[in-house]
Each structure stands twice: as C-alpha cells, then as structure tokens.
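Hi W.,

Here's what went into the run:
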Amino acid sequence: MLPTSFDDLASSSPHLKPVFLRLKEWKSQHEDWSVLDTRVLARDMRDIDPFLLSLALQILVKQGLYRTVYMVATPTGVLAEDEYDEISNIPERVPDRFNEYFSTADADIVTVLKPAA
Amino acid sequence: MPDGTDLDALLKLVKDFCSVEQISSLLRVAKDSGDVRVSAPTKDVLIQKNLRDALTSKAVLASTVMDLIREAEENGSQHVFYFRYFQKSGLSMSMVDIATRLWGRDWENKMSFPRLVLVPGDFIYADLHPWNEHLKPTDWVLKIYGQETVEKPTGVVEVVDENRLKREFVKEERRIVVVVRWNHPDLLEVRVPQTDSKKRIKAWVERTWIMISAALSPALFQKWDLEKPRHRMVLEQAKHKNVYKCSNTRVLDADHNVASFETHDPQSNLFASENMVYSVNKLIGDGECTQLRVTWIPWKNALPSRELNTLVGHNESNELVIGGHCSSKDVDYVTDQLRRFSK
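Here's what came out:
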C-alpha cells in the first residue's frame, strides 16, 4: 500500500484524518513488517481512541487495500510464520520461530491485516 | 518404460510431490513432438489421463518423469544434517565405490534403481544417482524410502449411548523420503522430512546411518558445527544485507545464560533495530549463537530462486531446517553460503 493511500483516506474521511496519518507514520517506521497486527497498533497508538482506530482499520479492508487473515501467537508472544483465511484452518500444532511445535488450542489467535495482492 | 505396477507407483509419486505447473510444463515440452494433451480440469485427470497416455505412447520418457520426481522429493521441507568427512582416511567416495561396498560388484543389476514400490513398515534403498555430472562429477545422491502407516482422525463421532462415543480413524500410508547426498569435497548430508516429532527425526537419521554403514562408517565423519557461520552471519549481517536477513536468534552467553531474540513479524529484519544489533553483539561476544533463522534473498544468478527460509541450528548444531519445497540448486546455494561463512 502506498503512503499516498493513507493521505487519500485521510482526505475522504476527515473525522479519521489523525488516525490515518498516524497509521501512515507507523507504517513508514515499520517498512519491513508484512502485516498490521491490531494488538501492536493498539499498543503503539494508545493516544488514539480504540473505536476510531478500529473504524480506520475496517475502512482499509472495505476499500480493498488490506484483507483480514489470522495468525497464531507463539508462546513467546510473537507471530508464528503461517497465516490462515479461516480460524478453522489453523492446525492443532504449529511450529514456533525456532521450529518447536506447540498446541494452538492454548495459543492466542491474532487478527491481522495483510496488504491485498 | 515401467511395468503396470511401477507406472502406478510413478504416477502416485508425481501426485504426492509435483505441482500442477511442473507436470504441465513437462507435458508442454512433449506436446511439440507428439500427440500430448496438456489442459485438464483437475490434477488427478492431468496425471491419470494426460501423463499416463504420454508415458504409454512414449511421448514422455519415464526417466524424464523420474528426474522431475527426484528434484521435487529430494529438496526442501527437510532437516539437513551435515557431516564432515575425515579426508585423511583415504576411502574412496565415488558413487561406484560406495555402491560396490553397499551391494557388491553386480549392484546395478541387483538393485535395478530406481525402485518405486514401498515395503510396508520398512525402509528400502530406492535410488542412487549422480547429482549433476556436468557441474560436480563426483557428487551423488542415495535415496531411501520408508513406509509408515498412521492413524488419522476423520472427525466423525458416533454417539453409542449416553456415556460412550466412537471416533473414526482411517489408516494412511506415508512415504518417508530420506536423502544421503555426497557434496564434494568433504560434506555428507543426511536429509530427512520435516515433522513435528523430534523422536522420529532422530530415529530416521539413526536408521540411515545403519543402512549406509557398510560403505560409510560414522567414524569417518564428524558433525559439522555450524556455530562459526552463524556467529559470522550475525556479526556481518549489515555487510551482506543483500544476501540474507535474520528474523530470530538464540544466543548462549559466556555464563551459559540463554537469550532469544525474535522479531514480532516473521518477515521483518531483526537487525533493522540498532538496539538489537547492540544487544545480540554484546552477548555473542564471548558466547555463541546456537540458532539463527535466516531468509536468503534472491540476487546473483537468480539464486536462490525465491526467498528461502532456513533455521541454521536446531536440536543439533549441524542441523539446518529448510521450510517449503525448493530446487536442488537452492539447497546447494545455502550449503555453499554456510561453507563460505565457516571460513
């Protein structure tokens, strides 16, 4: 997604302008991240109203710029490698980043936004 | 041309290991020289009709299909264990000498490779072939097939009465492909498939050593400790940022404390943060890097052919985990890079 897309969205939704500009700034500081993790965004943007942040993220999806996928948090809290379109597709056991398998029954399932192809 | 049984086994291997694109490309090449149909509504039809017909009419040779299977099943989604050969032992490592030591002088007739049909619950020698006679004439690959039957739940549950349930399982045959690769001048690679069971990985490696011991005694080899390349790759990551990036590592400091460093996003670069560079370098100074997740980036000569995720060091210090299927050239590229960083 191009930075100008955030500018366009900020122009078309003036009430969400500060949120889109913050998202643009966050994205430029995390250029090599492949996804937007909603938990991380909420933590990094504590000064933003969570409702407005959620609304802005929904617009990113509705506009077709991002799509929602699911990832599994490893026991250390980072994201495991694979992503899933449906929660029901998540296997019973998946490898963490050091290839140690763990049960997904006890793991956090994280909703993330991935740039649309 | 394989007989009926072998043809069925050959087509089963194509189904298990080759993609629709790979099979279609093979048929497309043959189409120029014969009556071959490429398009098919499903992978099954592509294999059971189009490819079977092409093999029967000899528009496609069984040996060409075998090469495709070899490339697909021998590379990637594996744990690779590296062993260094004590060259002073003076034992010949040529393919013919290895084969003669394993199966006797008349080995070609006796073994009639490739063997495709599995033996239930057992491991068999399946193939022995040169790796790439033009590039590395002394390299070879020995392939072993194992067969395991696993019980897989179907998800069907029948309520028998108030206190009893019946869950349905189906038996599923699994082909275990173990590859022993001689990588001239001094490396033996034992490659086993990825699985979530460390016990199975260990058992497969031990079984392999038993099967090759008549030609290759374990005493002639030592584990190639990949600590040096890991260590160098951490310290020199900025210098080689076009070659690889690291997303997580585990470091053992001089007091045997263990620290793990992981990026939150699996695709991002651990060393994009200066704090991370400082912390890891500080700990690794008198300690060692026990595990390093490396993504190899395609660059010169289109190698690797795509971004390739590897874990250098896992349960064993000589172990490399390669995620996802890839080409033989990709695996060799990684091995060559590890050799380079071990100097």
